[in-house]
Amino acid sequence: MDLYIIRHGLAHPLGQKNDFTDEKRMLTAQGRDRMREIAKGLRKLEVRPEMILTSPFARARETAEIVADSLAVDAKMLMLTSNLAPGSPFENVLAEIKEKKHVESIALVGHEPDLGELAGLIVSGDSAFALPLRKGGACCIHVTERIPSFRGVLVWLLTPKQLRIIGK
User: Fold this and answer.
1) Distance from C-alpha of 156 to C-alpha of 102, rounded to nearest angstrom
2) What does the pLDDT look like over 134-150, one tens digit per residue?
3) Which residues contact 154 (CB under 8 A, 6 or more apart)?
4) Domain 2-167 architecture
5) Which burial class, exposed, middle or buried, applies to 147 when counting CB atoms under 10 A from its CB (0-12, 13-18, 19+)?
6) Cβ neighbour number for residue 39 with a 10 Å cutoff
7) What are the structural domain ranges in the chain?
8) How far is Cα 80 from Cα 105, in angstroms, rounded to an integer?
9) pLDDT, tens digit, 9 for 90 and up, residues 17-67
10) For residue 31, which of 4, 14, 27, 134 is within the disulfide window of CB 3.0 to 4.6 Å?
11) What residues have CB less than 8 Å from 109, skipping those under 6 apart?
12) pTM value?
């Protein structure tokens, strides 16, 4: 299984004169534009997830929608999950992925530091070994085993700038 881990794009800051809560923070116009460029880079890398699981937070949902549109992922295969909300235990999202027995490629869209720690856990067996994901950054892990625990090999880890360059 290939697991693509994607951090949400640039969002409006919390605390401006607005009524945003953290859950409702949307991508900025620049964040949406950059995510479209990043998604082009993912497409050139031939990223083809069968399914996208995303945090229910607005900025992650928007990011997932942009990625799904660019990579031609069926809208029915874009699913919100509270297991990718900030602070959710890794065991929950890993259990959810294990339930998808016939899916060979999944993209996860969410937040730091959780995604980086999850990637580190899968690659090294220790969440203290976190892979840094900038806003719009992504990595690909080839999962080699799901039982008894998730283990995998890091295939690539790219910054948003690298993905935008690839997309040009």
Assistant:
1) 24
2) 999 999 999 998 888 88
3) 119, 123, 131, 139, 140, 141
4) 3-Layer(aba) Sandwich (3.40)
5) exposed
6) 25
7) 2-167
8) 17
9) 556 688 888 999 999 999 999 999 999 999 999 999 999 999 999 999 999
10) 27
11) 6, 7, 8, 52, 53, 54, 55, 60, 63, 64, 67, 84
12) 0.94
Query: What's the token pair of residue 150?
Result: 């998730």
> Do residues 4 and 140 lie in contact, with contact meaning Cβ atoms separated by under 8 Å?
yes
Residue entry with tokens 């800051």: 13
Q: Order across the sheet with 105-110: list the strands.
A: 78-80, 51-54, 105-110, 2-7, 138-145, 151-158
Token pair recorded at residue 66:
């942009």
Strand-pairing partners, residue 109, are: 6, 54
